[in-house]
Specification:
By secondary structure, this protein is α+β, with helices and mostly antiparallel strands. It is built from 7 helices and 8 strands, in the order βααββββββαβαααα. The protein has helices spanning 8-19, 25-43, 102-105, 113-127, 158-164, 176-187, 199-202; strands spanning 6-7, 47-49, 52-57, 66-69, 72-75, 82-84, 88-90, 108-110.
Length: 209
Amino acid sequence: MELAEGSLLDLLDVYLTEFGVPFVAEHVCHYLTQIAAALDFLNTRQHNLGGTRVALRHCDVKPSNLLLFGETAKLADFSVATQSTSQDWYHRRAGTLDFIAPEVFQGRLTDRTDQYALAVTYCQLRGNRLPFTNTPSTFQSDYVRPQPDLTMLSPPERPIVARALAPVPHDRWPSCVEMMNRLTKCTAESTKKPGPAGLGSRVRTGAKR
């Protein structure tokens, strides 16, 4: 396998160390739009496995599982990924609790569960914090996500990410790519800022998780 230069979590550390700020919106959109396309591909019921056409849910989208190869970001760690034949599927609870969607606490997966985790990832990369502060350390079926705190984002970004974090899966965006395209468009007019150069020489961690 090819060796990654690091993860988006590693790159966030570079931003904080060298610039004193998290990712600027343009750079987050550049990388996460690539991840969004991969998630939409996986979550479409088009994969022939064992003679059955299924969709694949990654179930653990987070910055440390998004690896960098130059300017390309790739989705990694499919250890808890699962296949599904429907948009809404009962399944064992799995994933990183800080990032998972509300339905996962109830033992369900949908075609928009990964989108929720991608939106939480966007928040962490943009603001160096998560939108929730009271996430339990173990799975609790009665846990209810509070309203997300999106003050780490600019006002134009907030309603877009808020929709992706809707408690009801079908209230979210139809696809991850649509969410990222809207974020890219709304931040395109903001001031361009330099990102860390020479990533490969500074973030040489391989497939760090």
